[in-house]
Amino acid sequence: MAGTLLVDGAILLVGILLLYVGAEFLVAAASALALSHGVKAATVGVTIVAFATTAPELFVSATGALTASDSIALGNIVGSNIANIGLVLGASALVRPMEVDDKTLYQHGPFMFTAAVALVVLGLDGSIAAFDGVVLLALLAGFTGYLYYKSQQADDVALPEEVEMDEETTTAGVREYVTLAGAIVLLLAGSRALIVGGKGVLEAWGFGDLFIGLTIIAFGTSVPELATSLVSAIRGEAEFSIGNVVGSNIYNVLAVIGVVAVLVPITVSGSTIGYEFPVMLAFTVVALAVMAFGDRITRVEGAGLLAGYVGFVYFLLP
């Protein structure tokens, strides 16, 4: 028993590491390839980079739905969105209070709220089927089109230091295509390892698939957002910490659930409708309210968000 648990724990950690490395490689390769084909840096920053950082959730949810349980797919996204606000945003604000960028709040904030509400409304009948997935993907197309339009209006869109995108010097060739392929392999391997290891660890303690998706798998897929946001907060780049969370929560719902629902219907349990959905909406509203009314996220507010996340996980325990 102890030996099996140790092996599953090791597989889980390897999965998290592979997801993180795979996401980093995917961002770098996809950005370079897009720029080499004439796509503007600002457009790459708000579309490809934003979508690529959601790759762990997409691969884990799709792999989980197809090979393990659709509860893992839904739990991963709901849990990840809650973790992004409570854990990632809360921890980042504890490291350093963050000034809120009006552009992120007023241009992207409404889409984050709309995505959360759309997921809840579509899941109230007990399932998120192919048609619901198409609706979410249509909203994603609208959001991406909006971002593209905005990026064309402003050439001075700031990007994180680790995302180097200079149209004058960026070239891409075989190396970038190989890196892209390697990143996808790492994400697939990491997704499978995270699911196998996470299920093994928590099933040994008697937990079900939904709890597994909401907690340990959601945390594992939020590692790239957590690492990026903490580094940005330490550097004083608050706009990237906040924008990372807002963008990730939008893409998690519209892209990941949209794609997975088209592939396989997702069952929505009564407990999800009665507890996890309301908590996700509450975290979304609280995050937007804190950003709107204070123009900054203080350490006290960060501690409150973090405490809320700990409380959420605690009340999930049987």
TrEMBL record:
Record-annotated Sodium/calcium exchanger membrane region domain positions: 10-148, 178-316
Record membrane topology: Multi-pass membrane protein
InterPro entries membership: K/Na/Ca-exchanger, NaCa_Exmemb, NCX_ion-bd_dom_sf
Top-level taxon of origin: Archaea
Cellular component terms per the entry's GO annotation: plasma membrane
Localization: Membrane
One Gene Ontology MF term: calcium channel activity
UniProt keyword annotations, A-Z: Membrane, Transmembrane, Transmembrane helix
Membrane spanning stretches: 12-35, 42-66, 72-93, 130-149, 177-198, 210-234, 246-267, 273-293, 300-317
Any matching Pfam family: Na_Ca_ex
Protein name, per record: Homolog to sodium/calcium antiporter
Organism: Halobacterium hubeiense
